Amino acid sequence: MTEVGEAHVLVSPFPAQGHVPPMLKLAEILSHAGLHVTFVNTDNIHRRFLASSPALQRLAGLPRFRFRTIPDGLPEDHPRPFLQFLDLEESLRTRSREHYRELLVPTGKDPDGWPPVTCAVADGILRLASEVAAEMEIPVIFVRTSGACAVWAYLCIPDLIKGGEIPFPEEEEEKEEDGLDETIRGVPGMEGFLRRRDLPSFCRNAKSTSDRSLQFVTNANANVRRGRGLILNTFEALEGPVLSHIRSAIPISYALGPLHLLSRTFDDCGADAPLSSNSASLWQEDRSCLKWLDSQPQRSVVYISFGSVTMMSRDELMEFWHGLVDSGKRFLWVVRPDLAEGKIEEAIQEDLEKETKERGCLVGWAPQEEVLAHPAVACFLTHSGWNSTLESVAAGVPMICWPFFADQPVNSRFVGDVWRFGVDMKDKRGRSVVERMVREVMEGERAEELRRSAGEMAELARRSVGEGGSSYRDFENLVKDIKAMSREK
Ligand code: UDP
User: What EC number(s) would the UniProt record show (predicted)?
Assistant: First the structure.
């Protein structure tokens, strides 16, 4: 029989920016709680980590934490665009199985003298992990890196299909736009406000139930019901009602968010350590923008970032650019080299560049948590990725939401209509909309209201991760449950 202290978890994220850092933060606090933790990266992701992440140094000092890597099965020079995540998922499942199995249940002695793996903590969309763990009869606790609101919508997809709500009925072309405003009945708790356009993009894009992406997300989310529990990066004060619905389907669901704050509660560095030591980015951060922010007045800057995956046309990018310029506000914009086709420098005309030289700053990748926490930042124009949303919530920064895909349309509906600390720009385009929304969130009474609600939720987020807070308690329960599993052997 394995002793309680010998619990060993194998933590396996899906290899992408939106998944690896939050699961790494979870892995780190599990290790602080006394568990042995092996974190599985793909070779490709690990190489990028080694080149860019300040968090690695800190992790190297933890006695019960280690990295292991597996190949992802794709050729070395493959660009691995996240928009083709199904190909990456399939490659991992079919070509990396043996490597993963060897980490889960090694054939030889552990080189560090660690106990055998007693629990797999696996990303809900990483079928490789759930299938191999089931084969080897290792208990699995799943992690979904989306918010509870999106996870609940995903879990309801089979009912939406049964009820004839998806795929959307075919409309004549001119009615199609209005059709997207139809409210959805099949997601309990969201009947009054969730419209077709707010469903995860896979629902909107599917022309039939055999659509490959729709099938994948439906099956992956159905699969998480079969685990020993589900971990979500959210907190009761933010998503309590939705969490109750999820718990009606998956009774053991732990809400541990915001994980980037919870990790600071347990971190030896303490809550006041510089945020930079916390960063787990896959891109090299350009920290020069923090200096630039230091020279800007308080609450004067719009921070713009569309995350690691969003792509837009050159025209769309130019409309954002013009809208920002026309708003007259200061701005810090993360323009990834692959955000739009062509070089941004070419796209931005010289006269605009001159006009905004003093009040604009462009970087390829920013230290986002630090940027959002900076007193000069007044609002966040975001694609509504869940990590970005939570980071903005934690910093008390109101949002302008321009969702791109996956769970983002659900998140932005909640920000704009339920939590009301931002505005939803979904499906809207053009410089005048950008300008209007920036002004709405930066000027006058409405801006004050948004900032007040954002500030209140930030305070609740902070409390949830402190000793006795809801996320802190759920984390303690998770550790207790994992330790109990190690006694089952
Ligand atoms: N991020 C960052 N620097 C940037 C842009 C983004 O560190 O310049 C981080 C951000 O803090 C967040 C993650 O990248 O943790 C993006 O995750 P999210 O879920 O918001 O969106 P995704 O990239 O998965 O679409």
Answer: 2.4.1.-
Res 175: pLDDT? 64
- pLDDT recorded at residue 1: 39
8-150+213-278+464-488 and 288-462: identical CATH topology: yes
Which of the pair, 340 or 469, is modelled with greater confidence? 469
Between the CA of 488 and the centroid of ligand 1 the distance, in Å, is 38
In this structure, of 82-96, 340-354, 362-376, the range with the lowest mean pLDDT score is 340-354
Query: Residue range 420-431: average pLDDT?
Result: 97
Give yes or no for a contact between 484 and 478, defined as CB atoms under 8 angstroms apart: no
Q: Residue 349 above 80 pLDDT?
A: no
CA dihedral 54, 470, 139, 74 (to 10 degrees): -30
According to DSSP, the β-strands at 8-12 and 65-70 are unpaired
Tokens of 312: 């837009």
Does pLDDT of 201 surpass 70? yes
Q: Which of 19, 32, 260, 322 is catalytic?
A: 19
**Partners of 293 in the beta sheet?**
none
Give the torsion sign (CA, 402, 219, 154, 239): negative
Peptide bond preceding 337 in cis form (omega within 30 of 0): no
For the cut 60, the answer to whether the pLDDT of residue 463 exceeds it is yes
At 242-278, the pLDDT tens digits run 999 999 999 999 999 999 999 998 875 555 556 665 6
3 state SS of 17 = coil
Q: Tell how far the Cα of 405 is from the centroid of ligand 1, in angstroms.
A: 14
Mean pLDDT of 212-238: 95
Question: Between the CA of residue 94 and those of 89, 90, 100, 201, 218, what are the distances in Å?
Answer: 9, 6, 11, 26, 20
Tokens at 136, concatenated: 């080897």
Q: What is the pLDDT of residue 32?
A: 93
Q: Given ligand 1 and candidates 388, 405, 410, 415, which is best to mutate, with the most ligand atoms within 8 Å of its CB? A: 388
Per-residue pLDDT, averaged over 417-445, amounts to: 97
**Ligand 1 nearest atom to the CA of residue 260, by list position:** 15
288-462 to CATH, choices 1.10.940.10, 3.40.50.300, 3.30.1300.10, 3.40.50.2000: 3.40.50.2000
SS3 301: strand
Number of neighbouring beta carbons within 10 Å of residue 425: 21
Distance CA 305, CA 381 (A): 7
Report domain extents, the chain.
8-150+213-278+464-488, 166-211, 288-462
Q: Whole-angstrom Cα distance, residue 433 to residue 414? A: 20
Ligand 1 probe mutation, 26, 80, 368, most atoms within 8 A of CB = 368
Binding site membership of 388 for ligand 1 (Cβ less than 6 Å): yes
